[in-house]
Design brief:
5-stranded parallel β-sheet, 3-stranded parallel β-sheet, 821 residues, 60% helix
Length: 821
């Protein structure tokens, strides 16, 4: 029945695991034929172990071929068989009535037939024709031992099997599903998957809608949950961290890739929360999600967590002042915290708000605060500014605040900034000891319902490279998804022959190609997906990968779920969970420039089609612009496509999105085109005019999204470009945009009174701004003329809106006086 096990393990169990993880449930498939050690078998404990595993399970899945299984009328090892039954009877007295049955049937009785309906159950029997064909095939090949796996042991065994089938069929209404004659292992695996998925979706509640802060927290908590499942040897590190905290010495946690830094910090957070109830812990794991590596987002999250902690302190004080019988819901009803509506103008502003909250928190000398920032080498500063190293990591905080920052031991910049300048203490990660490796192996395998023999375990533990936690965990992962338990020794030897994590990951990619490159997709699916993720700027979503490379969902889903432990994809585009996998992909799939060009151009074509589909009538903040704006320019830049990049950056919606969210990156991108900012303005105006004609035609047909005249409706794009040129310190290009804006506003016709007032106000503002630019470029006569026009406007309309215009009137008056009036 190994074909069925392999199909489930490789293709469908990863999908079930994903479904459960989304609902906060840990999925552990327990294979009754995988992981029974030689010692357990020799001691007659096989049946006892299997029955106990059923007791620990929530769902029972049973399936049979033609072989009935080990029973008293079969084979010569009756003494060992009797020993299994004798040992089982101690805990399961009812087994005594089933001495003449196979051990597999006894498992069926315990899991289902003794109490039908008590445990959700799926039972299937394979069609005899499949086994007969396999028997004939192997006999023709001269492989009798293989052929016998598909033949019933005896006439008596076949009769026992028929009796079992009758019993099972009578309980059909008590099962989730029954198939008395499935034709192929693929058919069986599909039935199991569909039935389990339906059942789990019915009983497991989906996650409720989260607040913005909680959404940001999900990625970090998911990472911590995954690293807490198996962790050993932390007590010594915990003690060292606690000692440094007592002496107010911040810590730089250093170690090679895969040495367990994230796992240590995740488990230390749990340790602190369990042992120090009043302690405030703020943590950020860089790289755990698509938005976790930008300094702006890091500083924003630190700020939000500090503000949340402060709010909790204030709420606690309020609770102490209200009636004891008032419920928590009543106390918090109607409250809307600022942290539920996060916004961030700059890293500096976030850090200022963070310090302000921390200072208020620490105003009580008895309070303690721990801040943890993991994997600082993964922080990506793409602001385009020249900045101080780690400027986004808080410094000079009040006494009682303890910071731990972790990084690779090769990160010399972090070493110099934190240890040499900020006087952090270094804590170095050490290789795993033999005992620690042994414990990790056992714990991981237990959680996955597996077990190694003593010899197999010793092979893994004695390997020098498994002293690296990442190497060890990848090895155990690959072994736990290996379905052919009779060939497990060979698989162990193969993995341990690797001399580096990269070689091991190459084995992983071998396995992925073998399992998930399918006939339904003619190209190398694994190579396509991983290569696309490699060349992408911030990653790709599932739907983008499927659409860009025409991958059917039934083909993509099994691959996605199988690679889930190696990627980050909780709330955004898929990205690599660790850099070693990225390195292995580059070496395997992208060795030549042509390899990169082919995959990059496919993605460019995909996002280019998305860009061309932007409707001129949609809002400039339409979310459909986000992904093309975040990917297309960088893809074009990566292959030095200057013309394509210039065309993309002159797209009104791409420009608008980047200007609002990544203005300094936009500056850098335009510089890469080789065109001047004056030329950018000219090209942008040309694109603006083309789209203006489209809008005008829709406007005349009554199909526009706004009643405003086309030029006014689209004015926001020119205004943003004018501001962008100010940021770029290009006055000539800025004045070029201002003149165009003024021209449009001067030619507006047929507007109501309210719109006319708005038009004149906007016109005056832009004239004033252009007048200032004229003066800055020594065109004083032109500046003087516009200043007078602006002053005249405010003289005429000041009585209608004094408060709104008084500041600008004073500025205009000042410039008028500077001309001698």
């Amino acid at each position: 029945m190994e074909e069925e096990r392999e199909e489930l393990t490789r293709k469908y169990f990863p999908q079930i695991r994903h479904l459960c993880n989304e609902r906060g449930i840990h999925f552990v498939p327990v294979d009754m034929r995988w992981g029974i050690t030689k010692e357990s078998a020799q001691n007659g404990q096989v049946l006892n172990i299997c029955l106990r595993e059923i007791d620990r399970s929530d769902i029972f899945v049973g399936f049979f071929g033609q072989r009935y299984g080990w029973h008293s009328a079969h084979g010569a090892s009756h003494g060992l068989l009797e020993k299994n039954f004798d040992n089982a009877v101690i805990n399961y007295p009812w087994v005594e009535d089933y001495w003449d049955r196979s051990m597999t049937e006894v498992e069926f009785h315990h899991g289902h037939l003794n109490n039908p309906g008590e445990m959700p159950t799926i039972i299937c029997f394979r069609a005899k024709k499949f086994d007969d064909d396999k028997y004939k095939q192997y006999m023709e090949l001269g492989k009798e031992s293989m052929a016998l796996k598909y033949l019933s042991e005896s006439v008596e065994a076949a009769q026992q099997m028929d009796s079992l089938k009758t019993e099972v069929k009578e309980t059909k209404d008590k099962c989730l599903a029954i198939d008395m004659e499935y034709k192929h292992p693929h058919e069986f695996a599909e039935l199991i998957f569909e039935t389990l998925s339906k059942y789990l979706n019915e009983i497991l509640k989906p996650q409720t809608e989260l607040s913005p802060r909680a959404e940001m927290l999900v990625d970090h908590d998911n990472l911590m949950m995954s690293t807490r499942r198996v962790y050993v040897g932390g007590d010594n590190y915990f003690q060292q961290l606690d000692d440094h905290r007592k002496h107010d010495k911040h810590v730089f946690l250093s170690g090679p890739a895969g040495s367990g830094k994230s796992a240590l910090l995740s488990n230390w957070v749990e340790h602190l929360n369990e042992t120090e109830e009043e302690l405030i812990v703020i943590y950020h794991f860089i790289g755990c999600g698509g938005n976790s590596s930008k300094p702006l987002n890091i500083s924003l999250r630190l700020r939000l967590e500090a503000q949340h902690a402060l709010q909790m302190i204030k709420d606690k004080k309020e609770v102490q002042e209200v009636s004891e019988d008032k419920s928590e819901d009543e106390k918090s009803a109607g409250k809307t915290s600022d942290i539920d509506k996060p916004s961030a103008d700059s890293v500096r502003e976030n850090l200022n708000q963070f310090r302000k909250a921390v200072e208020e928190i620490m105003s009580d000398p008895d309070r303690k605060l721990v801040i943890i920032v993991d994997a600082i080498e993964k922080a990506v500063d793409d602001s385009g500014k020249v900045t101080k190293p780690l400027y986004w990591l808080p410094d000079k905080l009040p006494p009682g605040v303890f910071i731990v920052a972790s990084s690779l031991d090769t990160n010399k910049i972090a070493q110099e900034e934190l240890v040499d300048k900020r006087q952090y203490q270094t804590l170095q990660m050490q290789p795993l000891s033999q005992d620690m490796k042994h414990e990790i192996c056992v714990k991981i395998l237990q959680k996955r319902g597996k077990e190694f023999s003593t010899e197999q375990l010793q092979k893994v533990v004695s390997s020098k490279l498994t002293a690296n936690p990442l190497f060890l965990v990848i090895t155990i992962h690959e072994l736990s998804v290996f379905g052919y338990f009779r060939k497990l020794d060979q698989k162990i030897e193969s993995l341990l022959a690797c001399e580096s994590i990269q070689q091991l990951l190459n084995k992983y990619l071998d396995r992925m190609e073998e399992d998930y490159n399918v006939q339904e997709y003619p190209d190398n699916l694994v190579k396509t997906v991983f290569s696309a993720l490699f060349v992408a700027h911030v990653g790709l979503t599932e739907s983008e990968l499927q659409e860009a490379f025409h991958i059917p969902k039934p083909v993509f889903s099994p691959l996605y779920f199988a690679m889930e432990r190696f990627i980050v994809s909780h709330t955004g585009p898929i990205w690599f969970a660790f850099s070693e996998l990225r390195d292995a992909i580059e070496e395997r799939y992208l060795q030549t420039e042509e390899d990169r060009l082919v995959i990059t151009r496919k993605l460019i074509n995909f996002f280019e089609e998305k860009r061309k589909g932007f409707s001129i009538t949609m809002d400039y903040l339409n979310t459909s612009t986000i992904r093309p704006a975040y990917e297309l320019p960088w893809l074009q830049k990566s292959i030095d496509d200057k013309e394509g990049l210039a065309r993309t950056l002159t797209d009104l919606f791409i420009f608008s999105r980047l200007y609002q969210e990544r203005d300094y990156e936009l500056l850098d991108l335009w510089k890469s085109t080789g065109y001047s900012f004056i030329q950018y303005g000219e090209m942008f105006e040309k694109e603006f005019d083309t789209r203006l004609v489209e809008y005008y035609m829709l406007y005349n047909d009554g199909a526009a999204s706004s009643n405003k005249p086309p030029g006014v409706a689209m004015l926001i794009f020119l205004e943003q470009m004018q501001d962008f040129f100010e940021l770029a310190v290009c006055k000539l290009a800025s004045m070029q945009m201002s003149n165009r804006i003024i021209g449009i506003l001067n030619n507006v016709e047929n507007v109501d009174n309210y719109e006319e007032q708005s038009r004149q106000k906007k016109l005056a503002n832009h004239k004033y701004q252009l007048a200032c630019s004229y003066c800055d470029t020594e065109r004083y006569a032109d500046g003087k003329k516009l200043h007078y026009e602006t002053l005249e406007y405010y003289k005429n309309f000041i009585m209608f809106c004094v408060t709104d215009h008084v500041r600008l009137l004073c500025q205009v008056t000042y410039f008028s006086q500077s001309y001698g009036h």
